[in-house]
Structures are given as C-alpha cells and as structure tokens.
Design goal:
This protein is an alpha/beta fold and about 260 residues long. About 45% of the residues lie in helices and about 15% in strands. A 7-stranded parallel sheet has the order 3-2-1-4-5-6-7, with helices on both faces. Strand 1, helix 1 and strand 2 form a beta-alpha-beta unit. The chain is globular, with a radius of gyration of 18 Å. Keywords: Oxidoreductase. InterPro entries: NAD(P)-bd_dom_sf, SDR_fam. Pfam families: adh_short.
C-alpha cells in the first residue's frame, strides 16, 4: 500500500494503552513524527524511547489529563510544527448504573473527558489546519454513539455527542481540504472494561469470554487506513464489530 503519511506530525491522545498506543505504533511505522499524550508519564516515555529507536522519528510527549484545558494548550505550544493529523482517542466509561442510581462524579468524568476533552483538542488544532487548508481530524467513537443501552445513559450520550461533533465539524470545515472522520468500534479487548468496572478484574474479564473480541490493533489499522486515503477521499465513519457481535447488546458467546 502506498504510504501517503511519511513526515506528517500525528497527535494521538490517550496513547498510553489500548487503541491509542496501537495507533501511535502504526503511524510510527509509516515514518510519521508523533505527539502522544496521556496521564501516565512512565508509559509515554517508554513508548517514545521504543518508537524513536525502532523507526528513527521524533516523538513528543505530554503527560496530562485531557480534561485540563490549560495543559492541552501548553502541550500544543511546545510542538515545533503544526499537527497534520489529530486522533482524538482519549475516552472512557465509568460504571454501568441506571440513570436514577449513577454517580455524579462518574458522569462528570465521562462528559469532561469524552466530550469536552475532544472538543478542546479540536478547537485548539483546527485553526492551524484551516489556515494551511490541510489536515485530518479522526475521532474514536463507539457503537454506543449509534445505539443506547441500559446502564450506559451518560456514556452513550457522550459517544452520541462525538458522532454529532464529527458531523458538525465536517460541515464547519466545508469548502476546505481538511478531512474529518470517526471510527465506531464495538467490543474491543483493552483496559476499557477494567476502567468501567473500577478495577474489578474478574468482572472485566467476563466481558470478553466466550468469543473473539476486537483488538486494539484491529481499530488502529482502520484509523491508519482512513488517514492514508488519497487527499480527496474522506471516510466519515466506520462501525466495526467482532463477528460474534451484531449490535451494542447482542453478543454470541460460546458456553
């Protein structure tokens, strides 16, 4: 496959694990320079060391919470060149409680991370893209952005918001050469369920038992494919399931 990405600066949020880490590695293989952010400094530095050594690229790191708008701005100001591709990957689910019994703190964390964090990075980076008439914003959504399910009222709402933001951003940038895309995965075996169940390993493991879930690399390959299309091609969204899954709540598991 032709490499149309070499030399571009790709910013990946939530790059310390899962889809974000896998995405960073694939762009590094395509000889992109990287700006990676996340809350875990040690993991960022380890990934930076690995990718710079293996692929002879530059990797800039920012250890901060995407909810901290000032920290987002400071990180972007520290970069030596404009961002060509923004992968808004940072996001999480907290809890599976019904709307009448859920934690306000969990709601705030999801809304501030999944919606406001994504909006902050998009707001800070797209003016430069618009000035250059070039760039690509890729948002990591979810099947939860297309279907709601019990116990997911706020998480599903945040991912519905990501879908709306993606579509509206494309329309805001109508007439420019900037591309806007989204990937909407189903069940991906990452740290997602560990976070959702607040460290309950046994409960998290049950989510992925009895079938073959998607992997972080499966989704990263789709993100990379979308970014590597010719400049006149804009893939707006892809819904991606493991074969065993047919909807947000329909998963066939072997006994």
């Amino acid at each position: 496959m032709k490499n149309r990405l070499q030399g571009k600066l790709v910013l990946v949020t939530g790059a310390t694990a899962g889809i974000g880490e896998a995405t960073a590695k694939l762009f590094a293989e395509s000889k992109c320079n990287l700006a990676i952010s996340g809350r875990r400094e040690e993991r960022l530095q380890s990934l930076k060391k690995e990718l710079e050594k293996d692929f002879d690229i530059e990797v800039f790191t920012g250890a901060f919470d995407i909810r901290d708008r000032d920290a987002c701005g400071e990180f972007l100001e520290s970069l030596i060149s404009p961002v060509d591709i923004l992968v808004n990957n940072a996001g999480l689910a907290k809890g599976v409680d019904a709307v009448y019994d859920a934690s306000f703190d969990d709601w705030d964390t999801m809304i501030d991370t999944n919606i406001k964090g994504l909006l902050t990075m998009t707001r800070l980076i797209t003016p430069s893209m618009k000035q250059r008439n070039s760039g690509h914003v890729i948002n990591i959504g979810s099947i939860a952005g297309h279907e709601a399910y019990p116990g997911g009222s706020v998480y599903c709402a945040t991912k519905h918001a990501v879908k709306a933001i993606t579509e509206a951003t494309k329309k805001d940038l109508h007439g420019t050469e900037i591309r806007v895309s989204m990937v909407s995965p189903g069940l991906v075996e990452t740290e997602f369920s560990n976070v959702r169940f607040k460290g309950d390993e046994e409960r998290a493991e049950k989510v992925y038992k009895g079938y073959k879930a998607l992997t972080a690399v499966d989704i990263a390959e789709i993100v990379h494919f979308i970014a590597n299309r010719p400049m006149h091609v804009n893939i707006m969204d892809t819904i991606v399931f493991p074969v065993a899954q047919s909807s947000a709540s329909m998963v066939h598991k072997e006994a």
